[in-house]
Amino acid sequence: MDTSSATREARGALRYLAGIRNRRQGCAAHSTAHGEAHPEAHPDTRPEARPDLQVPLYPPDTRPAVLVRNTLVRLNAPRFAEARTANRWWLLALLALSAVQFSMTPQARPYAAWAAVALMTWLLARVYALGLTEKRQRRYEQRWLAARSTALRDTWFEVVGCTVQARPGTANDGRRAVSYVPARPADVRALLARQAEERAAGRSSRLTVEFTFPLPGSPYAALEVVDADLTDVDLVTTARGGGVRFPHAAYHPESPRSPRERHRPTRGTFWVLGVPVLALAAPGDESRAGAGRYDESVGG
Q1: Given this model, what pLDDT does residue 150 score?
Q2: pLDDT digits (tens, 9 = 90+) for 79-100
Q3: Is 169 within a domain?
Q4: Are residues 87 and 32 in the same domain?
């Protein structure tokens, strides 16, 4: 087993242990705008930037709304399907209470009747409150997804692997996969030269970027992998390299489990990353011209 095979197996084991699936990005490749500003050179992983964020229940904005949330809705997450199931159990309890009162003594029947009326009133109010809450949650969900998508596009992740492999059927299809270290100037010069060469020749190799993102409630990070055409990737040279971000990334609600849930609020999300922007260490004055672009406003 050669060194490259051992490295691939080790990285595969790391993905398995982290519980991360390799996601093939389904969005079309788009070039990024060359006038874009990059606020940071070093990776800035944020706790909210991970593949499967949970959509929170919208926060109540008034004291009456807090009271309704605590007494009627009684949810701390958008679990509306479970709330509807609970309503059915409450309805069965109401029917049972209504039936039991006929077997009670005449002295106890008024108390059972009042209890049934109180339970029915509370249940009707809960059904109405849940309906309003679900409508507000759908509107809140769209705003929340848009805000999280914006934050995701501005987030820099730490790169732990960068490999370029010629695609089958091209002139260099027999060329072995080459690993590049974004923080190593010599590798940066080679990567920029290869990108310029392939753009001029009208062909493109496959760029594989491995990066990490934080796990919720854990000091450890998980590994994610994304592929893109080398000629489509925006390579940005900075004072420090080793970061990647995705200017076209977005969060989407998870697919409904049944047609009935198609128009109901979701709890889970998934991200679609798209073509990355890869931050590379500055290769030196002699190689700044030609490929890539240098952004002195990034880093220090």
Answers
A1: 94
A2: 888 898 999 999 999 998 888 8
A3: yes
A4: no
